[in-house]
Amino acid sequence: MKVMIRRTGDGLSAYVPKKDLEEPIIKADNEHLWGGVVTLKNGWRLVLPDLPRETPLPITVEARKIPDES
């Protein structure tokens, strides 16, 4: 799914246009964000592509949602 990652006054957020959903990123597996899993405030977990650490924001990327384990 397409996800726009951007910097806000409170940190980073992810916007999913198809769902008209914007949520703060509350956890990232990698300190530089890319190539790992991020967790959104609503509980969604997304796998982000492996991009260079200095990738400018905002950027729209193709991310994969990890299904809930419940």
Automatic annotation (TrEMBL):
Q: Give the top-rank taxon of the lineage listed in the UniProt record for this protein.
A: Bacteria
Which InterPro entries does the entry mention? NifT, NifT/FixU_barrel-like_dom_sf
Can you supply a Gene Ontology BP term from the record? nitrogen fixation
Identify the SUPFAM superfamilies for this entry. NifT/FixU-like (SSF159203)
Question: Pfam families in the record, alphabetically?
Answer: NifT (PF06988)
Under NCBIfam families, the record lists: nifT_nitrog
Q: What protein am I looking at?
A: Putative nitrogen fixation protein NifT
Organism of derivation:
Mesorhizobium erdmanii
Q: Which gene encodes it?
A: nifT
